[in-house]
Amino acid sequence: MDSKINKSALDCIMTRTSVRSYSDKEISRETVETILRAAMAAPSAMNKQPWHFFVIRGEQLRDTIADTLEYGRQSLRNAKMAVVVAGDRSRFFEDVEAVDYWLEDCSAAAENLLLAAHALGLGAVWCGVYPIPGRIAQLRKATGLSGEFVPMCIIPLGYPAGVEEPKDKWDPDKVTYLD
Amino acid sequence: MDSKINKSALDCIMTRTSVRSYSDKEISRETVETILRAAMAAPSAMNKQPWHFFVIRGEQLRDTIADTLEYGRQSLRNAKMAVVVAGDRSRFFEDVEAVDYWLEDCSAAAENLLLAAHALGLGAVWCGVYPIPGRIAQLRKATGLSGEFVPMCIIPLGYPAGVEEPKDKWDPDKVTYLD
């Protein structure tokens, strides 16, 4: 096998799964910065980096969000923190045909964030917000997020309370070879 | 440092960068399957897995795509293969308010694919297709992709011809702490 192969990174990708129950262990500032650095290492169309990360550490605000949002409540309540991955409108494409690239870029950043969390021993779950108008409004209301930002998802984070088995989603029928 | 920390996965995330020039080294079938497995390990809203992967190995088809598509031509021409990450409409949400989740799910899958490629020593670049109508039409024309699938991006792949330095995109101004 090629010595350049990073089996450990492949293992991280293959074993990441949604974690919704967390222990009481605190998350250090250093760990938070590491996962945000990973998120910002994502690719983006024309390198616009149209993302912004709102880090929610206070229990009270987390509870307010859990009370307001129709989804992810249980995870938010027992998480140690949460990150809202949002699009930054000032960095969107002006061309209306290209504007949705922000959603792809922020999704790549969110996936990097989840993988980095898993690599650091944390558990996390991507709770979808955008494009559901009700959820966007609920999250705006709970956090006071300005119109400049579009909340894409909220990711509760914490050290896993248990052991989660990853799903096997491999499906060769989802591959077509064109030659 | 916690022994559970997977530094190697973090390193993969932080050092991945767009690679547009490739060597002549062939990519094995096993390697292709590994990167597709990684792509399918991505999370998706309600576990819909609304993705499909079109693997383009033939030089002639790659050249046809490069001739037709307005973007990514040079990379496509010298790549050993390319993967089109597409949305599978049969797996989209029926609720029109939720339909755009496919784009987030396919983007997470594309990011996994790029990271797995990098972990395996390959280079790759995310060439945006969706939402640009012209590019979608061009790629459909070149590949004969049916209307059931929405091409999101095309990713040329190959072993890097040179050494690419990753960009440092860390920007603390893109983080807001809400407590």
What does this molecule look like?
- Two copies of one chain form a homodimer.
- Chain A is an alpha+beta fold and 179 residues long.
- Chain A has six helices and six strands; from the N terminus they run ααβααβαββαββ.
- Chain A has helices spanning 7-15, 29-40, 59-68, 73-78, 101-119, 133-143, and strands at 51-56, 81-88, 123-124, 127-128, 149-158, 175-178.
- In chain A, strands 1, 2, 3, 4 and 5 form a five-stranded antiparallel beta sheet that branches.
- The mean pLDDT of chain A is 95.
- Chains A and B meet through helix 1, helix 2, strand 1, helix 5 and strand 6 of A and helix 1, helix 2, strand 1, helix 5 and strand 6 of B.
